[in-house]
Amino acid sequence: MIQQNNKTDLDLLLAMRHDNGADFWATSDGRLGIEKPVSTLTALMIMSELTIRADHEALQGAADLVLAAVREDGRVRIAPKSAIYPCHTAHVAAALCRNGYAEDKRVQLIFAWLLANRFNDGGWRCNKFIYGRGPETEFSNPNVTLLALDAFRFSKKYLDSKELDDAVETLLDHWTVKTPVGPCHYGMGSLFNQVEYPFLRYNLFYYTYVLSFYPKAQQDQRFKAAFEALSQKLDDQQMLRVEHPNRKISHFRFCQKGCPSESATSRYAEIVKNLEKAERQLF
Question: Which residue, 34, 60, 136, 266, is the most exposed by fewest CB within 10 angstroms?
Answer without folding.
Answer: 266
